[in-house]
Design goal:
CATH topology of the largest domain: Rossmann fold
Helix content: 25-40%
Distance between the termini: 51 Å
Radius of gyration: 23 Å
Number of strands: 26
CATH class of the largest domain: Alpha Beta
CATH superfamily of the largest domain: ANL, N-terminal domain
CATH architecture of the largest domain: 3-Layer(aba) Sandwich
Number of helices: 12
Number of domains: 2
Shape: globular
Length: about 475
């Protein structure tokens, strides 16, 4: 395998330089031009002092410039860390302090917007500066919040990324160069980056960019670009089913939808298929592992409660609290060994050791495996709220609440939500002689957290329930 994913794209660009790689409302970029621009960005980064092995932060939304900057960083041999544009200034600052990038790249570094007229213009592909040094540089650092509330950067090698992309393009989605894949998922997150951008590009398919999800925009993009594969989260499928535009929508080109980032209930997948005739391929993944368990495009077999089978190359174990295997069909913690696993969390050796044990990743999720090998998630060992495809960890939200001068105690947990899967509920106790309303405290969080993180429900209590040792007992909160 190549030691850098950018080399795979260079090969695709040489084969089909004039084919559309990226299309959007009002513009397009051919493979040859995408590669040429990525090479130019590599030279720009080098001129700004970025070297092979350096870290580069990428703060660009779902635009053509994201793909150009990502590939340009890889051409130079840099490790790229995409950051969600929805992050607030304080959140971004905390990540940048941890990442210590050589440069933060935004749209201004990438240059002028290409026009549709550039299609059909064959430009020589620019390889850009090649990495130097003793070995391959890591490909990505993807940030995911941890149980301590501090964002953690998962370090992912080019080899791990390439195996993940091959899995997405092969068994999960069965992509071919004739496909057009919708990219309305956030490209800064693992699912959007791999399933909606890199996998299609590296097999020579076309990516149809939609900068921000809205039912009417997605329906129009599917019609205009003849989209064949639609990766999305459960919330997107629900909103489309509820949209009046769906009744007259032309979805005839779509052969497959793919869900990820958060559980997609069977009732939703069945309702979507009944209404549109399109199957949703469900699965299970996380930033640190990409998508290790999934149903597959070529296999129509499904079970309502299960999340699928391990994809080729992935091993799983179901263990008890001591790490011993449990009996068949008994619940236990899901451990996964995957060639696409992260190498480590940067600057967090203890947290790395907590989840990586002899190449096995301890997911913190409780699961069962049936006689056919189908995996079903039955609970979570570690706290995590999955809100509309985004992972939210309660300690991060609790820390923001505790920063308010009136708050003495705070506890955050997930509550069921019919569209998002889960939403965020908070409980606080105030300091003596202090006052604050629920609306005031929600606004305090909204101003300091990304839109998917702040609590939508907040209850002020006289005191939070505690154990004899002073630990807050979240199970006793009046949710």
């Amino acid at each position: 395998m190549a030691d850098n994913c950018a080399r795979r794209l260079e090969a695709t660009s040489r084969r089909t330089p004039e084919k559309p790689a990226l299309v959007w409302d009002g513009g397009a970029l051919a493979f040859g031009e995408l590669d040429r621009r990525a090479g130019a960005i590599a030279e720009t980064l080098a001129a700004r002092g970025v070297k092979a092995g350096d870290r580069v932060a990428l703060t660009i939304g779902n635009q053509w410039a994201f793909a150009v900057a990502l590939l340009g960083g890889w051409k130079l041999g840099a490790t790229v860390a995409p950051l969600d544009p929805l992050l607030k200034d304080d959140e971004r600052a905390a990540i940048l302090a941890d990442l210590a990038p050589a440069l933060v790249v935004d749209e201004a570094h990438v240059g002028a917007r290409p026009l549709r007229a550039r299609l059909g213009v064959s430009a020589p592909a620019a390889a850009g500066p090649r990495p130097s040094g003793p070995g391959p540089t890591a490909a990505l650092i993807l940030y995911t919040s941890g149980t301590t509330g501090r964002p953690k950067g998962a370090l992912l090698s080019h080899a791990a990324l390439e195996r993940a992309i091959e899995s997405w393009a092969g068994p999960v989605m069965a992509l071919t160069p004739d496909d057009v894949v919708l990219a309305t998922l956030p490209l800064a997150h693992s699912f959007g980056l791999n399933g909606a951008l890199l996998a299609p590009l590296l097999v020579g398919a076309t990516v149809a960019l939609v900068e921000r999800f809205a039912p009417d925009r997605v329906i129009e993009a599917i019609r205009r670009h003849r989209v064949t594969v639609f990766p999305g989260v459960a919330t997107m499928f629900r909103r489309l089913l509820d949209a009046p535009e769906l009744a007259a929508a032309d979805l005839g080109s779509v052969r497959l939808a793919v869900s990820g980032a958060a559980p997609c209930p069977w009732e939703l997948a069945a309702r979507w298929r009944d209404r549109t005739g399109i199957r949703i391929v469900r699965g299970y993944g996380m930033t640190e592992l990409f998508r290790p368990i999934s149903y597959q495009a070529a296999n129509p077999q499904e079970s309502p409660d299960a999340i699928g089978w391990p994809v080729p190359g992935v091993e799983i174990r179901i263990v008890d609290d001591a790490g011993r295997g449990v009996a068949a069909s008994e619940p236990g913690e899901l451990w996964i060994r995957s060639p696409s696993a992260m190498d480590a969390y940067i600057n967090a050796p203890e947290e790395t050791r907590e989840v990586l044990v002899d190449e096995w990743f301890r997911t913190g999720d409780l699961a069962t495996v049936d006689a056919d090998g189908l995996v079903t998630i039955v609970g979570r060992k570690r706290e995590r709220i999955l809100r509309g495809g985004y992972s939210v960890f309660p300690p991060e939200v609790e820390a923001v609440l505790l920063a308010h001068p009136a708050v003495a105690e705070a506890a955050v947990l997930g509550m069921p939500h019919p569209e998002l899967g889960e939403d965020i509920a908070a409980f606080v106790a105030l300091r003596p002689d202090s006052a604050a309303t629920a609306d005031e405290l929600i606004a305090h969080c909204r101003n300091r957290l990304a839109a998917f993180k702040y609590p939508r429900r907040l209850i002020v209590l006289d005191a939070l329930p505690k154990s004899p040792t002073g630990k807050i007992l979240k199970s006793r909160l009046p949710l």
